Structures
1.
Amino acid sequence: MYELKVITNFSAAHQLKNFDGACEGLHGHNWKIEVCVTSDVLNEAEIVVDFRVLKQHVNAVMASLDHKFLNDLEAFKDQNPSSENIARYVAEQLSLLLQAPEIKVSRVTAWESETACATYYPS
Ligand SMILES: [Zn+2]
């Protein structure tokens, strides 16, 4: 199996409900997002997918989050915009944008600080 990874980032504000700690108040993060996609096969150019194409899709998902108050977004209306849920949101949105059935989003990691991250593995 082949795995590609792209790293990107976005800045946004959020507020976590039912959370006893500093993240309960309104605040922002500069999230670093790592996206991994896998494929068992290579295309005729012997790559999984053009990094440029993959980055275009990833950037489209980032644009939906960047400089937003995440709690206001439809995706987080009924759930906290935690790093865990952000990672899942990115994985789900990217899966919709990737047209090739042989390419799967294998994991998305959302770093909310230099030392703390959450990873989502689509089942
Ligand atoms: Zn936070």
Note: Helices lie at 51-63, 83-97.
2.
Amino acid sequence: MEIVKIVPHGFCAGVIGALKKALSLEGTVYCLHELVHNEIVVADLKARGFVFVERVEEVPEGSTVLFSAHGVSPAVRQAARARNLKVVDATCPFVQRVHDEARRYTEQGKFVYVIGKRDHVEVQGILGEIKNRQEPLPYRIAVVSQTTMNSDEVAARIEELRRTHEVETSAQVCNATKLRQDAVRNFTGDALLVLGSANSSNTRELGEVARCAKVFRAGTIEEVKALDLSGVKVLGVTSGASTPESFYEEAINVLADR
Ligand code: SF4
């Protein structure tokens, strides 16, 4: 079996920045949600003493809270202030840009349509910026997008909305997501392995955009070892934006030894 390393893959600037911020902190740090959606990274942070919580109310008053790369809503920021928490914000600048756009549109009195997965923590944060809600949607709308969606689907959804609405938008997925998806679209082998966790949106989308017959995903080295790759002649290997390169290289070595 030939193994092809798909480039680019792995950590994006937003994840690197969030980890750098986290690792510079001392004392007990409460991280709101997973800092990035990767089980290896989260296990490592837990081993270093980070405490993971799902609600600001779980953080003891006056403690340090770390906001994850996915961003938080204004209501969460307000709740942190009310508890007198020391806030360290690891929100990715590209996610922050979507918040800023959603807030600007809202302040202009526009109705904002969000392309994304409603229950994803990034989308929950963005929705918190939006005050104007109306069903059904009015004719004039502004559109923003979750940063890690399938870039083709975002473009197609905007075109669909344009058929029935007047749309104002600069919505697009982040550059790191687009570059990783385009590299996978260009891969012509017969199978793709995406390394990353099941709850990572950009990892899942890498599998969705693949044009090869078989797509596998593995989040741990045990899962890599358990893959049934029988019949695969050319395997492309990529990884999500929150997957450590050390895991990627370990997985490549395991695959090469099979
Ligand atoms: S995938 Fe994009 S939006 Fe998400 S952390 Fe990385 S750079 Fe930021």
Note: The mean pLDDT is 96.
